[in-house]
Specification:
Shape: elongated
Strand order of the largest sheet: 1-7-2-5
CATH architecture of the largest domain: Sandwich
CATH class of the largest domain: Mainly Beta
CATH topology of the largest domain: Jelly Rolls
Number of domains: 2
């Protein structure tokens, strides 16, 4: 659920959203942020509401901005000169976004787009100096390590797809989504995320028609179950 803003237009507004953001940051044990550090970030964050399909562009532009998804789902999209845009990752509540137009040295545009209605908290680069005063050295190192870990995971998952046939790519990507958005289902894991065949095609770098055939084959082999509106991975496929 996306928190509603309070009637306060200053930086200290958005009370319910700040409470949700505070809880999301506090529960990320790998960040190991102190209460003071979390509070320093939360009280300086601004908020942006986006409708599905809308590009995430904070006030003042995205350069150097770090964002956190508070509600909804955001996808990271990379332009491709030879084909349709590729979806790099789906980011749910608590996920960190690096909204930087210069983050991709290849020259291809990398953007964040709301996959569902979403609420994003963002910290402009100008506010980082104030936040840094509240961070211990080990906290700064953990934040940097988290960034590199995320990048390494994305690189591994993208590279793993290259040597796979399309059905293997689809199954691999569905397992990734089940890890991030899965909830228990009597027969396996339900991916609690609106996902079309076109979305899957963008995630695995294949034509939509080939992805549709792969989904049909995976259902026939018992790896996927037929559930209206959602993909459900059978226990044997997880």
């Amino acid at each position: 659920m996306i928190p509603e803003p309070v009637q306060d237009h200053g930086v200290r507004g958005w009370g319910p959203a700040r409470q949700t953001l505070r809880a999301l940051l506090a529960r990320q044990a790998d960040l190991g942020l102190s209460t003071a550090a979390v509070e320093a970030m939360v009280c300086r964050m601004s908020f942006l509401c986006c409708q599905a399909g809308q590009e995430v562009v904070p006030e003042g532009g995205p350069a150097g901005v770090v964002g956190v998804v508070v509600g909804g789902v955001v996808k990271i999209v990379c332009d491709s000169p030879s084909s349709k845009p590729v979806t790099v990752e789906m980011v749910g509540a608590g996920g960190i976004l690096q909204l930087d137009a210069d983050a991709c040295p290849s020259g291809n545009g990398v953007t964040a787009v709301a996959h569902t209605s979403a609420l994003i908290a963002y910290l402009p680069s100008t506010a980082w100096r104030e936040v840094a005063c509240h961070l211990r050295v080990e906290e700064c190192l953990r934040l940097a390590a988290r960034t590199w870990k995320t990048l390494s995971r994305r690189l591994y998952e993208r590279s793993a797809l290259l040597a796979m046939p399309v059905p293997g790519r689809v199954l691999h990507q569905l397992n990734v989504l089940a890890r991030d958005f899965g909830r228990p289902h009597p027969s396996g894991v339900c991916i609690d995320l609106p996902l079309s065949h076109a979305d899957l095609a963008a995630l695995v770098g294949a034509a939509r028609a080939n992805v549709t055939r792969a989904v049909v084959a995976l259902r026939a082999s018992g790896h996927l179950l037929r559930v209206p509106g959602r993909f459900v991975l059978a226990a044997r496929a997880c």
